[in-house]
Design brief:
heterotrimer, A alpha+beta (255), B mainly alpha (399), C mainly alpha (134), A: 255 residues, alpha+beta, three-stranded mixed beta sheet, C: 134 residues, mainly alpha, 5 helices
């Protein structure tokens, strides 16, 4: 991982200890027999590898004409605010893709966004380490060190990243974005970090539950009791471009 | 080493100043273009979120690849002890540094945040081939600079051979690194091949030598200095061999790709149904960029004419440019295969479509600015320092 | 010769003095005129301060922000103290219609002082200049 750009590096040992202590405390208060949903860490604690956030997307439930996930993502993060340029130049953090099996003719529709790979090609190729993977599995761009070379966009197998082609104004407070940097789905990291003590949701998964068809389940892949882990254990699922061996945090069913 | 009389060119002719002003004007326009693109953002260019690297990168990669190739002439003299090449060593090293600086300038000025160049120079991710290249490029300039110094400073002359050897090894690493920028990209079937690295090395031999031949002939013709046929013919014969080698690697690249059924779609796109890219590949890269130059260089009637040798060198450069364009832009134009076995029937982000690219004038001008920076550096250097021998006439120069 | 050197030195001293003194004067003025922002002004009236003493904030705020920035971006620590979002929510002003005024616009908290100190401010190329809409 890249070194922090600040000289006053945080005390990792202390953090790891505190994180362990709080996790243990969190587990203790849960009554036995309850299906536990992963809780987010308190706001003053660093993220830890004890958690790995991920999503399970069931194509069988995803309706071709529904764009609830895409719309809520746009509202949450403020992309789709371009005033100039061609559509090919505009940002796209998440999109719906309609597919037909060339052999059988079976038609499906799924949302595609950053797959939050464990071994992310974007993080591998980034010259400054601006593309990085947080300990809790979220792949992010540190826009303070991104120089806008776009090598990550060349390397991403999912076309999940966008380059900001114009000067932006009136960005949203929780999602800083700016000209000349690359951006992509951040798995609503701010929502997760600030959801202390409750079960976090991404904007897309919440919208899919509420306005869509409940095709997206968000949760902690490292927690064996979470809904997503239970489903992944019992039901078949797949990774996009599984041949690349990237161990993606986003999984699909019935594509 | 024979005593060679190196002399500055006079550089007072009308032609010199016209050329100087021409390159200067292009650089000024290029600087304006770069500012325009950075000020507005990349929406004013032909690049977008589908074709993320465009014409500036074609120029930059071409110049960087040609730079390491231009050093070959010096390496042949120093490392392989071919006396006939030793007199050309200084100009070879100079051209190498100049082309590299030109290429890097284009690359840096196309960044989304060129103001953060200091970040690129201080914060590294050592797993990134791009970060290695930053060291390879700066190292190349330092090593070649030292090599030049050892060649030109009599007191240091005895060290120039080891320096030349280091420079030779370094330039091979540099081009391997540049080729690997693409070779390491597993996501795109157009790039993901180990053949990329050696292919880029051979491409650098060819482009660099063509650029060197043109600069050499132009310098001697315009400064009225004798340039013997032996020197020119030796270089042009070598250029013909390099063109053949480029074709060979192109062939190997596509045959290995064709062997895997999963790549048939892309190969069909590039070789048969890719429209402009197919035309550029067959007509630009294969025919005009390599087959025709080979014919011109080896056919006795044209092969003995300076004019046709210059035409052939120019074709090699344009063909090389086309080759990089086809590899880089063509490789991005072909859609990513995210869902193997599935056909995309609808998509929010141009999935499953062949992407098109029409470069803006700004990108072209920025690229030409890089070329002009390289050329103007050579012009200034040979006017004030002793880079070129006063005479390269044939007599008594046999090797 | 010495005489000339003396004149030159005197001229330099006068010029430098003329440049430094008003700047210090301006720094002193900031206390009175600066747009502190709605919530920050109210807090000041109640006798409350910023997250650190004013003098410390004035000279060190960028260090706090940079440190907090790395903690947030790299490790997901999102405490409010030292967070840019929190600075803005307190120091932003509202116009007569009750809409937020961008904090990097003329005369606003961040902009006014940075203009006075002639320090380039580039946070707001990416960061929001107002809190989330009410």
């Amino acid at each position: 991982m890249s070194k922090p750009t600040s000289n006053d590096a945080p005390d990792f040992a202390r953090r790891a200890f505190v994180a362990k202590a709080t996790t243990a405390a969190g587990a203790a208060v849960v009554a036995p027999g309850l299906v536990v949903t992963a809780f987010a860490k308190p706001a003053d604690q660093p993220v830890s590898a004890k958690t790995r956030w991920g999503m399970l997307i069931d194509a069988a439930k995803c309706a071709a004409d529904c764009t609830a996930c895409v719309d809520s993502c746009g509202d949450q993060h403020g992309w789709r605010d371009e005033s100039v340029g061609r559509p090919e130049q505009h940002a796209q953090w998440i999109r719906k893709v309609g597919l037909r099996d060339t052999a059988t003719g079976h038609v499906t529709s799924v949302p595609v966004m950053c797959q939050h790979c464990e071994t992310a090609p974007c993080a591998d190729v980034c010259p400054t380490g601006a593309s990085y993977r947080r300990p809790d599995g979220i792949v992010l761009v540190n826009m303070h060190t991104c120089i806008g070379c776009r090598y990550c966009m060349m390397a991403c197998p999912y076309k999940a990243r966008s380059f900001v082609h114009q000067t932006l104004t009136d960005q949203l407070p929780d999602t800083p974005r700016g000209k000349g940097c690359v951006e992509s789905c951040n798995l609503c990291a701010t929502l997760i970090d600030e959801s202390s003590g409750t079960a976090p949701q991404t904007a897309c998964s919440a919208a899919c539950q509420k306005d869509g068809n409940g095709a997206i389940v968000f949760g902690d892949l490292n927690d064996p009791n979470s809904e997503i882990s239970q489903r992944l254990k019992k039901e078949p699922s797949e990774q996009l471009r599984a041949d690349l061996g990237l161990n993606t945090g986003v999984r699909y069913q019935h594509v | 080493m024979k005593k060679i009389d190196y002399r500055e060119i006079q550089g007072n002719s009308l032609g010199y100043w016209v050329l100087f002003l021409l390159f200067g004007a292009i650089i000024a326009v290029a600087a304006g273009s770069a500012y325009y693109m950075e000020h507005n953002g990349h929406w004013v260019t032909g690049m977008d979120n589908q074709i993320v690297w465009g014409l500036p990168h074609v120029f930059a990669i071409f110049l960087i690849v040609a730079a390491s190739g231009a050093l070959n002439v010096a390496s042949i003299g120093t490392v392989f002890r071919k006396e006939g090449y030793q007199a050309l060593g200084r100009l070879s090293g100079l051209l190498a540094i100049a082309l590299l600086i030109g290429g890097l300038l284009v690359l840096v000025l196309d960044l989304g945040r060129p103001d953060r160049l200091i970040v690129a120079m201080t914060v590294y991710n050592f797993k990134s081939i791009f970060a290695w290249n930053i060291f390879l490029y700066t190292g190349f300039m330092v090593i070649t600079g030292v090599y030049l110094w050892f060649m030109m400073e009599r007191k240091m002359n005895r060290f120039y051979k080891p320096a030349g050897f280091v420079a030779f090894v370094w330039r091979l690493m540099l081009t391997t690194g540049t080729g690997s920028i693409f070779g390491f990209i597993v996501a795109r079937e157009a790039f993901d091949s180990a053949v990329m690295a050696p292919m880029f090395v051979v491409m650098s031999f060819s482009f660099g030598l063509a650029a060197f031949l043109l600069v050499l002939m132009a310098t001697y013709t315009w400064s009225d200095r004798p340039l013997g046929n032996k020197v020119v013919f030796r270089l042009k014969n070598l250029l013909g061999v390099f063109c053949g080698a480029v074709l060979y690697f192109t062939l190997v690249f596509h045959i290995t790709a064709l062997y895997a059924t999963e790549h048939h779609g892309f190969e069909h796109f590039l070789l048969v149904g890719g429209g402009i890219f197919t035309q550029l590949f067959w007509i630009g890269h294969v025919l005009l960029g390599n087959l025709l130059p080979i014919a011109l260089l080896y056919w006795s009637k044209t092969g003995s004419s300076r004019f046709w040798i210059a035409v052939a060198s120019t074709l090699v450069i344009l063909g090389g440019f086309t080759q990089i364009y086809v590899i880089l832009i063509g490789g991005q134009a072909y859609p990513l295969d995210i869902f193997p076995g599935k056909e995309v029937v609808s998509g929010g982000f141009f999935e499953g479509q062949i992407n098109s690219y029409s470069p803006s004038p700004w990108e072209f001008l920025l690229g030409m600015g890089g070329v002009s920076v390289a050329m103007i550096m050579v012009m200034i250097a040979i006017k004030f320092l002793r880079f070129v021998p006063g005479s390269l006439a044939d007599e008594g120069k046999a090797a | 010769m010495m005489q000339q050197v003396r004149y030159v030195l005197l001229a330099v001293a006068v010029l430098l003095g003329g440049w430094i003194v008003p700047t210090q004067q301006a720094a002193a003025d900031i206390d009175e005129d600066i747009a502190l922002g709605a919530k920050a002004s109210a807090a000041k009236e109640r006798g409350e301060g910023c997250v650190e003493p004013t003098e410390v904030m004035r000279s060190q705020h960028m260090k706090f922000l940079l440190h907090h920035r790395d903690e947030t971006v790299l490790f997901g620590i999102r405490t409010k103290k030292y967070s840019l979002k929190n600075c803005i929510s307190c120091h932003v002003s509202e116009d007569q219609a009750g809409n937020y005024i961008r904090i990097n616009s003329e005369g606003q908290f961040c902009q006014e002082c940075h203009e006075e100190a002639a320090v380039h401010l580039d946070c707001f190329q990416c960061h929001a200049t107002t809190p989330r809409k009410k």
